[in-house]
Request: fold
Amino acid sequence: MLGELLKAAGLSAPVGGNIGTPLVSLSSLPSDFLVAEISSFQLETVHTFRPFVGLFLNFTDDHLNRHRTMERYFELKKRLFEMQKESDWAVLNADDPAVAVLAGQLSSRILLFSRRGPVNAGAYVQDGKIWLKNGGEAQFLVSVDEIKLKGSHNLENCLAAAAAAYALAIPLEVIAEVISSFEGVEHRCEPVLTIGSVQYINDSKGTNYASTIKAIESYQEPLVLILGGRDKGGAISPLVEAISCRVKYTVLLGEAAPYFERILHAGHYETTVRAENLKEAVEMAREKSLPGDVVLFSPACTSYDMFKNYEERGRAFKSVVRNLADGQG
Reply:
């Protein structure tokens, strides 16, 4: 979204890093800005990395199979701002206590974002509208119901992008137009097809528990969930609760299938079935769905047990769904 905002403002801004194109491939290109998603793995080895605008969207347990503790994981995430100066910007989630506390610790200028109420500097939601403010009078941006993206997490993404765009002096009318028209990116709650009045959604980027919970919460329709891959660890009880409350049937896949089955059954959620591969998982989900349902592919795991990366996994899911629609599945 931030890349689209810069593009709409007439600026060149290649997008890469942890999403798609490696940052090293973009660094030599002529551009006004680079938009990069930086992982905690990459932050382990940075020494001089200094973003002009750094965004910290949320903090949930993830990658504990590598970092071991939440404390270590947080310290790595915080390194995004380590080399920033007073002329740089940090955009922080005011609704996430672990992130918001950094506002008093960083040397850079601070912009906050909140979907729960006003902030002194940044982007926020109030009375169903998004506002931008930086010390002076708040300026109206768009109404929340104008945003096409589903889910509270996508509302937060819009707020964060708006705050960052504000720091980059992008005109308000450009920010409003892009945020209200942006339809999302591949593999993130991406609509694939509707078959027999059942929607098929590709959320292959859901590689941890928190991402899948947010995907589940984005839909009011009855859900059939395809879950599994290589587990990364973390506190699983919130995921079990979300599935128990919102998902009518879960198809389990990959290395984590036995673990998820055991944990879900222990939580008295027993409407599960195991699939041997992705094709079989989609076919099972089709069998369990009714008109008006949503089949949500949000694995809550990495792809490395079966695929090269989440992009390959997501495209494989879309291929299976399209073959299903063509009567070839």
Summary: The longest helix spans residues 152-167. The chain is about 35% helix and 20% strand. The CA atoms of residues 93 and 113 lie 5 Å apart.
